[in-house]
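Hi there, hope your week has been kind to you so far. It would help a lot if you went through both lines with me. No rush at all, and the record is pasted right below:

***
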Amino acid sequence: MNQFAMVEELASLVKDNLYSKHLILSTEEALVTFLQQDTSSDGILELQPVGSYHRLLLHRLAEIYGFVHESVGEGEARHLVLERCHETAIPSVLVSDILWDHADSYTSTSSQHILKRESPEILASKLEQSLSVATTPAPLEERQAAYRAARNLIFGPNGTEEVGSTSPKLRTDPTVARRMIAHALGRKVETKSNPDICDNEPNTGSRNNGTQNSGERRGNSSRASSAENLKKEQIGAAKRMFANALGRPSTREK
C-alpha cells in the first residue's frame, strides 16, 4: 500500500468520529512541527497516553510519516514513542487535507439541501390541507348507501327482520297452549273436536239447544265449577312456566 492510500484509509476511519478526528489532526500538527523545528540528536517524540484503538490509529499515522514507533508503559499510562530515522518525512498529502476536503464537500451538500427546503408558510398550508382532508366527513349519499347496505344485511332486502320457519300463529293457537299447560302439569292431552275440554275433564255429554230441565241445570253448574278449577290450574301452570323461564322460584297456588 502506497503512502497516499494509507492517508486516505486513515482519514476514512476518523472522519465520522469527532474525538478520533481531533486526535489525528492535533497529532499530525505536532509531528509536522517536530520535523520542521526539532534539531536534537536523538529525535524522539513521546505522545500522550490513549486507549488501544486510538493507539492503533497513531501507529498508522507514524507509519505514514516514516517514524519508528512502539508502545510503552502499562495500563492507562501506555503511550507511543516515536523515533526519527532517515525515512522520516512530511508526506505530500496530509490527513488533514483529505479531512478538510471531506468537510467542505459535506458543507456544500448540506447547504444545497437547506436551500431546497420549503418555507414554513408552505409547510403550514400543506399541513392544514392534510388535516382538512382527514377531518372532512363522507357525503350524505355515501352514508345513506352504507346504512341501507347494513340494514339489508341484518333485516333482509324488504327492510323487515326474517322470521324463518317459526310462525307467529303458534303463540295464539289454543291447542299448543293446552299442550304446554298440560306438559307443565304432568298430564297427557289428546286433540279433540271440542278445544275447551282436556282428558281429565269429566264427560258432560252432548249439548243441545232445547229446553233445559233441572237435571241439566245441575250438570251445567257442575261443569262451570269444573271449568273454573281447570282455568285456575291453567293460570297457575302458566305462571310457573313464566317463572321458570325467568329463573325465579315458582309458588304453587293453594
User: Anything to note?
Assistant: The helical segments are 3-14, 18-37, 52-65, 95-115, 120-135, 140-155, 174-185, 214-246.
